Each structure stands twice: as structure tokens, then as C-alpha cells.
Amino acid sequence: MFSAILYYILIFPISRLPLWLIYLIADVFYFVLRTVFPYRKKVIIQNLQRSFPDKKPKEIHFLLIKFYRHLADLLAEGIKNMSISQKELSKRLVVENPDILEQLYNKGKSVILVAGHYNNWEWMITSQNQLFPHQAIGIGKPLSNGFWDKKLNELRGRYGMIIAHAKNFKEILEGQKTNPVSVLVLTDQSPVDSRKSYWMSFLHQPTPVLFGAEMMAFTYDFPVVYYTMKKEKRGYYRVTLQTITEYPKITSWGEITEAHTRLLENDILNAPEYWLWSHKRWKRAVPEDLEALKNQQKTDFEKKFEGA
Fold it and tell me: Which of 128, 258, 284, 286 is a Cys-bridge partner for 194, taking CB atoms 3.0 to 4.6 Å apart?
């Protein structure tokens, strides 16, 4: 009940304001983050120190401040996302090379669109069905709060995106048999099970990576395309597409996962402040039998798709 009241009485009415005015509220929030309530400061600094071991304390603090600036803008843009029009979104989020997906669509190929929580992923979710010819499908994890889970999925899907999760994805895909789809997967969450993850070095530390995108690519023979989002100025973004593989079944185990994770890493190294440093990305312990685990994963994967 409280969540519904908060949404209808406060958050949604604010979302109807012009974005420049919401940014003024975000400026106040940024000041609070810097001086009064440093949100998850310990987690952010620890993540930054581990990822940039050569940076001095002053440089780490500078990145913290820049991240707080970005986080405040994300809040403003996230609130605006609840009521932003398609017309305004199309001005604020532009794809530099949409022909990559258009060509795959013309071949009748569905695709897996991979990225991380970098820059404004919510605007991408909301506008994906308008940006590309494929029917957009987003795979997400249900929220624990029932009201927000239903409301956010409803808002994310209002321009055509179909929201799916692990349990109903096959059913949704079955319903789109004759229609090429683009399945959006944000791959940088911390996996639930470290023993079912793909382990690799990422930002100077051993990191478990979700293997779902690669497994899906092999299972359905979907090409994999990575997108990077660059912030051109406040409230304006440019998306660039890059094909990882059009033919996943000719790749080796781990090749796709390594590729999209390295591309995300490169984006982060180029502009660190735009990644979501406040989430506990490295909370899983490295398995003691890591090499044996990786060998077994590789064997099981190759056996599963032998002759595919």
C-alpha cells in the first residue's frame, strides 16, 4: 500500500515535470549524496580500489564524486522514464549504426543484445522496440516488492517491449516463432551460483559472469550483438552496436562471454563513472577448485552441444 501511495502521490507526478526541472531536484540529491548521506560509500570505494589498484586515494575519491553525479542524473532520468514520450526518447537516445540489426532482421534472424548496467539502461529498455525492427524482449529478475515489480514492468513495456524471466522465456519465445526478436540481457549482475558462472579476470580481479547469454545463443542459434551507450551531454545518449558473432555455434566455450565482458570492461575503463559501482559485484567467493570446475564446465558444455 505504501509503495502505491508513494508512486501515485509523489513519484509519477514528478515524472510529468520537464526533465530540466527534475534535474534541479537531482542536483539537490547529488549535494545530499556528497555531504549528508554518502550512499553505499564503502562498497563504491572498495569496488573502485579493487578495479583501479594503481589509482591514488584522491583519484578514487574523484571517481566517487563523479559517480554520485551520474547516480543523481540516473534517478532523475529514471523518474522521467515513467512518463516520457516516444518522441522525446527518440531525441535523447540515438543509435549510430542501426543497420547491424536491420541486416540481421532482413535475414530473418533473432538476436541477443548484450550490455551492462552502464549509462542509462532503463531508457534503452523502454525504447528498444522502437529503435530496432525486431520484437524486443527483456529478461529480468522479478522484484521482491510486488507493486514495483508489476508497475515497472508495465512501464518498461508500454512501447512494445515484452518483459520475460527465466520461467516464462521459452513460452514467450514460442509465441514469437514467426517474428524475429531481440533479447536484451544485462550481463554484469552478480550471479546467484558461483559454481554455475563463467569465471574470468574482469577489472583486475577474478569475477563470476552470468553464462546465460552464451547458453541462449547456442541453444537457439541467435547472433550476439553488444551495444555500448555513450553520454554525449546531460540527458542525451548515443548507442553503438558491435556484432560479437553471427554464428554462435562455431565459437568455442566461453568465447562469447569473454567477448561481451571485455567490451563492457573497455567501456568502463574509458569512462568509469557511468557504471553502477554501488552494487556488490564481487560478493561471491572464488571456488577453491576453480580450474577443475572450469574444465568440467567446458566438458559439459561441449557434450551438450556436440554436433549442434
Answer: 284
Half-sphere CA count of 130, side-chain side, radius 13 A: 18
Mean pLDDT calculated for residue range 268-289:
95
Q: Which residues contact residue 112 at a Cβ distance below 8 angstroms, ignoring those fewer than 6 apart?
A: 182, 183, 185, 213, 216, 217, 222, 223, 224, 225
Tell me the three cell numbers of residue 79. 523518474
Set of cell numbers at residue 239: 548507442
* C-alpha count within 13 angstroms, C-beta hemisphere, residue 274: 22
Place of cell 558491435: 242
Model confidence, pTM: 0.94
128 touches 138 (CB < 8 A): yes
pLDDT tens for 16-60 read: 999 999 999 999 999 999 999 999 999 999 999 999 999 999 999
Of 109, 301, 304, the residue nearest 222 (C-alpha): 109
Q: What is the C-alpha separation between 80 and 148, in angstroms, rounded?
A: 16
- String of DSSP letters for 156-173: HTTTSPEEE-TTTHHHHH
Q: What cell was used for 308?
A: 549442434
Residue ranges of E strands in the chain: 93-95, 111-115, 135-139, 162-164, 181-186, 198-202, 205-209, 224-233, 236-245
87-304 under CATH 3.30.70, yes or no: no
CB contact at 8 A, 153 and 146: no
Q: What are the helix (H) ranges across 36-142?
A: 41-51, 57-80, 86-92, 99-106, 121-131
In sign, the C-alpha dihedral spanning 50, 206, 272, 186 is: negative
